[in-house]
């Protein structure tokens, strides 16, 4: 019922000035404009501007009107505030109306399905909600935020071709991460935490997800998990929300546990080794030296490269399981390394656990 009421909430496309009410009160008191001017000490010209809404009723004028009309000053002040607020809304609506074509670049349907936007809105109202979702007041401000040098410095092809969808996924991560209480970032503590998290690869998501988030938060890193979006072919991203709080954003693209954990440690490398000002995106690109460094870090953290030659010769699932036990990681990660080294993507596939989203 509450949603239905909100859906059909009336939003007037006009604004009534408090001067119109004042004119009605003056007439009900059978008072001329000249007399009202004398009684209030205001000029007739001032009253004319107030009647037309061209001049606001000040607090001082409201007090004078209370003495003359017996209408409380608070009422005049409220009427004035409501009038100015409505004028601002109408001006904003006119401005937004000229910007609504930008909505075509934003995946509004997906955001509605995820509960970030309300359905069945007119375009201007929807635009206002989208701007609120991004935490900006205009399309110009959106471009200023998402096309800054810090973002452009590590912008993937997806950001160039689908900036609205790309920014929408990142923004969902930001909103989730802002809700996570974190200690101030502590680099050495986070590095130690990564070894504890590596052990969690042996656990199921019901265990490793909350524990991983808890451990990272204690070191100043908020881990956000956001479902994949259409036209955003990324595995993860890293962004500093404040100088003392980093965000690692992940999804389940590919669904295999090996890809998920590789993505996590890839992003962890960015937190530890790269500049705080950049938004770093794991889109599979190998042209950026920072991405190559992050790939090498993730690979070495999970399985040291000295084991690669042995892994590539594996013939049985038991060999995979035995090495995983020796390394203290999930067999699926060893199986994933075998597939990567050999190109035999179907071999040992049953050892790699699939991760699924739960509402």
Tell me what you see in this structure.
The chain has 359 residues and is mainly alpha-helical. Helix content is 57%, strand content 6%. The chain has helices at 2-7, 18-28, 33-40, 44-51, 59-69, 73-97, 108-113, 123-134, 139-146, 149-152, 157-161, 163-178, 187-199, 205-217, 257-273, 289-302, 308-311, 317-327, 331-342, and strands at 221-225, 236-242, 245-250, 280-282. It has a 4-stranded mixed sheet, with helices on both faces. Strand 2 (236-242) and strand 3 (245-250) form a beta hairpin. Helix 15 crosses helix 19. The longest helix is centred in the N-terminal third of the chain and has 25 residues, at 73-97. The radius of gyration is 30 Å and the shape is elongated. It starts with a helix and ends in a 17-residue tail after the last helix. Residues 1-10 have low confidence and may be disordered.
> SSE order in H/E notation?
HHHHHHHHHHHHHHEEEHEHHHH
Tell me about the largest β-sheet. Answer: 4 strands, mixed
Overall pLDDT metric: 90
| Shape type | elongated
E-strand count: 4
Spans of 5+ residues with little confidence (pLDDT < 50)? 1-10
Structural class category:
mainly alpha
Identify the strand order in the major beta sheet.
Answer: 1-3-2-4
Ends distance:
24 Å
From the alpha-carbon coordinates, what is the Rg to the nearest angstrom? Answer: 30 Å
Helix tally equals 19
Strand content: 5-15%
Q: What helical percentage do the residues reach?
A: 55-70%
């Amino acid at each position: 019922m509450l949603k239905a009421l909100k859906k059909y909430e009336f939003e007037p496309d006009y604004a009534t000035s408090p001067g119109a009410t004042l004119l009605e009160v003056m007439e009900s008191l059978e008072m001329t404009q000249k007399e009202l001017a004398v009684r209030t000490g205001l000029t007739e010209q001032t009253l004319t501007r107030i009647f037309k809404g061209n001049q606001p009723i000040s607090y001082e004028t409201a007090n004078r009107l209370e003495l003359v009309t017996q209408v409380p000053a608070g009422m005049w002040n409220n009427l004035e505030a409501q009038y100015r607020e409505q004028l601002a809304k109408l001006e904003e609506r006119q401005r937004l109306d000229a910007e609504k074509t930008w909505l075509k670049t934003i995946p509004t349907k997906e955001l509605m399905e995820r509960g970030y936007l309300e359905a069945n809105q007119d375009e201007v109202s929807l635009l206002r909600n989208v701007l609120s979702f991004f935490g900006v007041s205009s399309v110009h401000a959106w471009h200023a935020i998402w096309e800054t040098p810090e973002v452009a410095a590590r912008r993937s092809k997806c950001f160039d071709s689908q900036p609205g969808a790309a920014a929408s996924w990142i923004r969902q991560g930001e909103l989730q991460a802002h809700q996570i209480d974190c200690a101030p970032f502590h680099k050495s503590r986070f590095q130690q935490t990564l070894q504890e998290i590596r052990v969690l690869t042996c656990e199921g998501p019901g265990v490793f997800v909350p524990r991983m988030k808890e451990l990272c938060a204690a070191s100043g890193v908020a881990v956000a998990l956001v479902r994949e979006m259409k036209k955003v072919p990324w595995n993860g991203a890293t962004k500093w929300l404040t100088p003392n709080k980093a965000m690692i954003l992940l999804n389940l693209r590919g669904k295999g546990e090996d890809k998920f954990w590789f993505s996590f440690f890839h992003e962890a490398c960015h937190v530890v080794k790269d500049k705080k000002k950049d938004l770093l995106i794991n889109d599979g690109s190998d042209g950026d030296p920072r991405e190559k460094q992050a790939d090498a870090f993730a690979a070495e953290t999970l399985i040291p490269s000295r084991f690669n030659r042995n892994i590539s010769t594996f013939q049985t699932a038991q060999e995979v399981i035995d090495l995983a036990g020796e390394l203290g990681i999930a067999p699926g990660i060893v199986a994933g390394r075998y597939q990567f080294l050999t190109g035999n993507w179907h071999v040992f596939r049953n050892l790699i656990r699939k991760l699924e989203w739960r509402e």
